[in-house]
Design goal:
The complex is a heterodimer of chains A (689) and B (124).
Chain A: H1 3-8, H2 16-19, H3 23-33, H4 36-44, H5 53-59, H6 61-65, H7 79-92, H8 95-104, H9 126-145, H10 161-178, H11 184-197, H12 215-228, H13 236-249, H14 253-262, H15 266-286, H16 288-307, H17 311-327, H18 335-344, H19 347-361, H20 365-392, H21 410-420, H22 423-436, H23 441-453, H24 457-470, H25 475-487, H26 491-504, H27 522-535, H28 540-552, H29 556-569, H30 574-586, H31 590-603, H32 608-620, H33 624-637, H34 642-654, H35 661-665, H36 669-675
Helix pairs in contact in A: 3-17, 7-16, 8-17, 9-12, 10-11, 13-15, 15-16, 15-20, 16-19, 17-18, 21-22, 22-23, 23-24, 23-25, 24-25, 25-26, 25-28, 27-28, 28-29, 29-30, 30-31, 30-32, 31-32, 32-33, 32-34, 33-34
Chain B: H1 8-19, H2 23-31, E1 35-41, E2 50-55, E3 60-63, E4 73-78, H3 79-86, H4 92-98, E5 101-105, H5 107-111
Parallel strand pairs in B: 1-4
Antiparallel strand pairs in B: 1-2, 2-3, 4-5
């Protein structure tokens, strides 16, 4: 992502007025701008207006590279070394303070070793641009097939040295992403073929800043990355906008100081950071390297800060620095005040505390690694939960690729598949149906049931809500909603639907006075159901609903009695066997529960929910090895059963199978199935103690 | 409903109460041997909290604060977040990092609080 800009040096360092829109840019300006010579040089860099804030944000890091002491004669190898080098240098200059002083001297002696040749922007002739663009495109295309790329003769493009370097650096980095699975030689060959065609010497490294000219190359990159990740649009600009919004809020220095103090406790800080990271993580996923680099960067920056225990750092220079920075942000008038406020914040304490925490964490590299890992995990989880957010809000989430769209009769197909027990396939066919006929209550209902049997209550609820919209009095829908909400421990909602069932029932509707439907009391509803059961003791449905009701109130013995009664009337109802089993399991009668689940599975072998419930029962008895096998079995049938993945993870760690956690996290079902096979017929699996 | 409170956590605590008496639950008390106190708020941390004591020393779950002294660790959650952590949807470290879980007491005791302590509800 934007790390690429840092690597390739997207030199979008605008003039001071434009870059002041972001504080890091003003920081850079404050640093670079104080040296007249550097400033001059800066102006000569083509200032292609940054179109997306992403590149602007990261590009601002570049001028820091121009700090005295920076070395440009080193090849920009990869993002990692670049990022760490960047920070290294930051530290290598023995702290901000010295760097600052150095700049302040204004001796005009710029970096002794790097002299950046001024790059004239080449004439932007449309034709070479186009040629180049299609040429680069073909390079990227070749990457998809993994075919070797052949040099092509191209017309003279009139590329400047800077351009060439830019292409060289970017293409070699890109190639390493594109051909991550290929050998180093292959990558080199590809890059060389590209460079050769463009008449770029692949060895000589220029020393200039790369002009921000080849946006196209970057666009192709984004495009190619976009193909790999379905994530939402960028990313890091969320960071910036958020930051600037906050800046606006804190324009008043007092409030800034206050809120900083409030957020002093790690929480505000952490959650905001998380928030912004979250938006960028979608991008990061496609790019492990930059992900790692960014993490590395954060860690090293933290280190740098912590290591500088020099009180002078906190007191004088840093504040001057900050004040200078703030000048770019219309703080001129309040400058001193701002600084004073800031110093009241006990910067020392803050830094000490931070350093201390870091010191504790950084005992060994491994601990900080695990930190980073945990954070990574956390981000992944966040992404997952974000994706789930829609469904938990009751919005149905359709599958991306649905082969049944366009099927002449998807409802019939869905019903057939459902009957055959191919639940995940049935889900797709039924989705196609409700996409075609959004008002088809039966399509939604069956879809909801398929999801429930597939152990996905969120989607089940979402689908059933749609079914209810289309047909508000459908009893099966109301019961299913009651059950799903019970499973999600949402008692009020469950009660509402179960009461709805009673009210809309042709036989018992008269029992239910409509006026109490606004504020339901469990006891009232339970009483009504008991009346209904007295009216017709041979109606299995009443007993089923009653059993669900008793589950809600956690009167499991009564619930079990109700389900058993219903089973006498409907012994072939697999979902009823599962309900009985789940109730027994929840009242800690796991052995009985497993018998009941087995009945359900005998009737419907692909009943994912029963498989997952089996796993739960074994896990709750501390038989983690068994539970793993059942969870894996359930997941093999429906890899979208989120709960089962979570439970599997817990069981794996409880069974001391941490070696398989990664397979669980990467959802490597093949490996898990191989590792944890389940023999179906040995229903009572021997306990391997 | 047995009582008026309508927390999702109640269901889990109720199940925990029975679970802790089983063999698997007894293993937990051997393994952990600590007393945890949970403050569970319906919507906002610190408001209308329901307090549970999960005594993994004696093997008891009771409503209300711990009466045998000071609990080894006290956790504060919102109802939703407690459920997420107890069911393994959110890892406790992450919950802590997000500010979804507050801890008082011994940190090393708190670290022994893992999602496998709680039994998982089965689905109807």
């Amino acid at each position: 992502m934007a790390m690429r800009d840092l690597v390739s040096g997207a030199a979008a360092c605008g003039d001071s007025s434009s870059s002041s829109a972001n504080p890091l840019a003003s920081l850079a300006n404050a640093l670079v701008g104080s040296s007249s010579k550097t400033q001059e040089r800066l102006k000569e860099i083509p200032t292609s207006t940054p179109t997306d804030p992403t590149s602007q944000f990261y590009s601002t890091a570049l001028p820091v590279n121009h700090l005295p002491g920076s070395e440009f004669d080193k090849p920009l190898l990869d993002a990692n070394s670049q990022a760490s080098e960047f920070l290294h240098r930051f530290r290598g200059a023995s702290g901000l303070e010295e760097t600052w002083d150095e700049i302040q001297r204004e001796t005009g002696v710029a970096g002794p070793r790097q002299l950046v040749p001024a790059i004239q922007q080449p004439p932007l002739d449309g034709t070479p641009q186009r040629v180049l663009s299609s040429f680069l495109h073909s390079f990227l295309d070749s990457s998809r097939g993994g075919v070797p790329f052949h040099p092509t003769p191209l017309p003279m493009l009139g590329l400047s040295e800077g351009d060439k370097q830019c292409i060289r650096d970017r293409s070699s980095i890109m190639a390493r992403h594109l051909f991550a699975d290929k050998s180093e030689e292959f990558i080199d060959a590809q890059v060389n073929a590209l460079l050769c065609s463009l008449d770029i010497d692949s060895n000589v490294r220029g020393k200039g800043p790369m002009p921000e000219r080849f946006r196209e190359l970057e666009d192709y990159w984004n495009e190619s990355q976009g193909n790999m990740r379905p994530g939402p649009p960028p990313a890091a600009d969320g960071w910036i906008t958020e930051f600037s919004q906050h800046r606006g809020k804190y324009d008043n220095p007092d409030s800034w100081a206050n809120s900083f103090e409030q957020q002093h406790g790690a929480n505000g800080w952490a959650s905001e950071f998380e928030h912004s990271q979250l938006s960028s993580v979608g991008q990061m996923q496609g790019m492990n390297m930059s992900n790692f680099a960014a993490m590395e960067q954060t860690r090293m920056l933290a280190n740098t800060l912590a290591q500088n225990g020099d009180p002078k750092f906190q007191n004088s220079k840093f504040l001057q620095f900050v004040s200078k920075m703030s000048r770019g942000r219309q703080h001129d008038a309040t400058d001193d005040q701002w600084v004073n406020e800031f110093s009241k914040l006990n910067v020392n304490d803050w830094a000490d505390e931070f350093g201390q925490q870091l010191g504790e964490a950084a005992l060994g590299d491994s601990t900080s690694d695990s930190w980073a890992q945990a954070y990574d995990e956390f981000l992944n989880e966040q992404v997952a939960s974000k994706q789930q957010l829609d469904s938990s809000r009751g919005v149905y989430v359709f599958s991306d690729l649905n082969p049944y769209v366009g099927h002449p009769n998807p409802l019939k197909e869905g019903q057939d598949l459902f009957r055959k027990g191919l639940l995940s396939e049935a889900v797709l066919a039924l989705e196609a149906e409700v996409l075609k006929n959004p008002e088809n209550a039966e399509g939604w209902r069956l879809l909801g049931i398929a999801h429930a049997e597939n152990d996905d209550d969120q989607q089940a609820i979402a689908a059933m809500m749609k079914a209810q919209e289309a047909d508000p009095t459908n009893l099966e829908v109301l019961l299913a909603l009651g059950v799903s909400h019970t499973n999600e421990l949402e008692q009020t909602a469950a009660l509402k639907y179960l009461y709805g069932w009673l009210r809309h029932h042709p036989k018992y509707g008269t029992l239910a006075p409509p006026e109490i439907s606004d504020s339901l009391y469990y006891a009232d509803v339970a009483r009504l159901f008991n009346e209904a059961a007295e009216v017709s003791p041979d109606d299995a449905d009443v007993h089923i609903v009653l059993g669900v009701m008793y589950n809600l109130s956690r009167e499991y013995d009564k619930a079990i009695a109700s389900f058993e009664r219903a089973l006498k009337l409907k012994p072939q109802d697999y979902s009823l066997w599962n309900k009985l089993g789940a109730t027994q399991a929840n009242s800690i009668q796991s052995a009985d529960a497993i018998m009941a689940y087995q009945q359900a599975l005998d009737l419907k072998p692909n009943y994912v929910r029963a498989w997952a419930n089996m796993g739960i029962s074994y896990a709750n008895q501390g038989m983690y090895d068994e539970s793993i096998r059942y969870y894996v079995r359930a997941l093999a049938m429906n890899p979208k059963a989120e709960n089962a993945w979570q439970y599997l993870r817990i069981s794996l760690s409880c069974a001391s199978r941490n070696d398989m956690l990664e397979a669980c996290d990467s959802r490597n079902l093949d490996l898990l199935q191989k590792e944890f096979p389940l023999q179906r017929d040995s229903s009572t699996v021997e306990v391997v103690a | 409903m047995a009582d008026s409170s309508n927390l999702k956590s109640d269901a889990i605590m109720e199940q925990m109460k029975q679970h802790i008496a089983t063999d698997a639950g007894k293993k937990l008390t051997e393994k952990i041997g600590l007393v945890y106190q949970f403050h569970i708020a319906p919507k906002k941390l610190g408001f209308d909290e329901v307090v549970y004591t999960v005594d993994l020393k004696k093997g008891e779950v009771t409503k209300g604060p711990y009466e045998g002294g000071k609990p080894d660790a006290t956790f504060s959650f919102k109802d939703e977040d407690f459920v997420k952590v107890a069911l393994g949807k959110m890892n406790p470290q992450i919950a802590f990092m997000r500010g979804a879980m507050k801890i008082k007491g011994s940190l090393s005791a708190a670290q022994k609080f893992t999602p496998d302590i709680f039994p998982k509800p089965s689905k109807l």
